[in-house]
Design a protein that fits this description.
By secondary structure, the chain is an alpha+beta fold. Helix content is 34%, strand content 11%. It is built from four helices and four strands. Strand 3 and strand 4 form a beta hairpin.
């Protein structure tokens, strides 16, 4: 493994693991990678320092439980997505529309299969079905029957 030199353009305010941050930048050619020039801290650098030090944590919104592709792990808790909080959020968001939720999850499962194969992993179809669609029966509303 060799290190690469990157010029950071900005620090992004995207949800990630605690202590990590997303950056936007580009890789420098080896002949252009010289010593970094000192500059005044930008607002993005101050925000990154606040994130590392823990300042302002009470004012932040909770991080959503979204999939991190291509591994299909939760961006928030690193559990296999859809994790339990993501399932609760999806069941609430799609309440009364279980067929639409099933189509959404089936499309995500298909994307996960494609992504995992591209990583060289051969996923177990039964395990993926249980993970993405197996919990759907718990979200269905009971039918009301008219008793006369």
């Amino acid at each position: 493994m060799r290190p690469i030199f990157v010029r950071v353009i900005r620090v992004l305010d995207w949800p990630t693991y605690d202590g990590w941050l997303w950056i936007d930048g580009y890789q420098l050619a080896p002949d252009l990678a010289g010593p970094a020039r000192p500059s005044s801290p930008s607002p993005d650098h101050r925000r990154a320092n606040q994130a590392r030090s823990g300042e302002g944590r009470m004012s932040r919104r909770p991080r959503p439980h979204q999939p991190m592709r291509p591994a299909w792990l939760c961006r928030n808790c690193a559990a296999p997505w859809p994790c339990a909080p993501a399932q609760l959020h999806l069941a609430t968001e799609f309440y009364g529309h279980s067929v639409a939720l099933a189509f959404y999850l089936a499309a995500n499962m298909q994307d996960a299969v494609h992504d995992l194969y591209s990583l060289g992993v051969h996923p177990d179809p039964r395990a993926l079905h249980a993970r993405f669609l197996g919990w759907l029966s718990l979200t269905r509303r009971p039918h009301r029957y008219d008793v006369r």
